[in-house]
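[retry 2/3] C4-type zinc ribbon domain-containing protein: previous attempt timed out, resubmitting with same input.
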Amino acid sequence: MAKNKEVTVEDRLRALYDLQLIDSRIDEIRNVRGELPLEVRDLEDEVAGLNIRLEKLVSSLEVIDNDITSRKNLIEEAKALIKKYTEQQKNVRNNREYNSLTKEVEFQELEIQLAEKHIKEFKVQIEQKKEVIAETKERLKERETHLKHKKSELNDILAETEKEEQALIQKSEDYKNEIEERLVSAYTRIRQNVKNGLAVVPIERGASGGSFFTIPPQIQVEIAARKKIITDEHSGRILVDAQLAEEQREKMEKLFAKIS
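[retry 2/3] C4-type zinc ribbon domain-containing protein: success.
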């Protein structure tokens, strides 16, 4: 819409409806992707979480292995002490010394029993953690496969539509630059507040597009006259007549065919 000529209301309505058709086409492309980008992000987060969990489980196994080694060392030390105290009992001078060494031996025997109990408990923990690790690995493998599939699906869609989407986004910006700022602001506001992003709609069977509310005949005549911008009192959408809408649709279909 050239800025060096007088811009009529009809020019504005046509430009606004063209802009709507472009933006609706962008919406369609994005709807084809649907929830895929979100699914991919969720799967990436899940895979990352499973990897962290796996790392922690493996790390906890190493800690338990170190605890077992520590207890085994303690047992060997206790056995060495028992041997030492038993040998010393052979050379005691009185019962007090003998009893004192006997208590030391008994204490070390208890230390061995306690260490052996801990080792058994640690081994049970290891088996339990190994089961969890195996389950986590299986889950991780399944989620990674699913993520790979979804990424491939998303990449295929992006490859098909990204060029068209970017071209349409540029066209949308071009059209906005050719329309008065106040109208673009109104269009954007309405688009954000209505279902399906439809801010400019044609009259269909006596009602605004996508609505069941009938437009009074006098208002329909005014819309067809294209002398002023009229909005639907129920939805706030900008209204255009069916003929104008059809003419602009045919025009924009040719543009879309070139872009795609």
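[retry 2/3] C4-type zinc ribbon domain-containing protein: The mean pLDDT is 92.
[retry 2/3] clearing retry counter.
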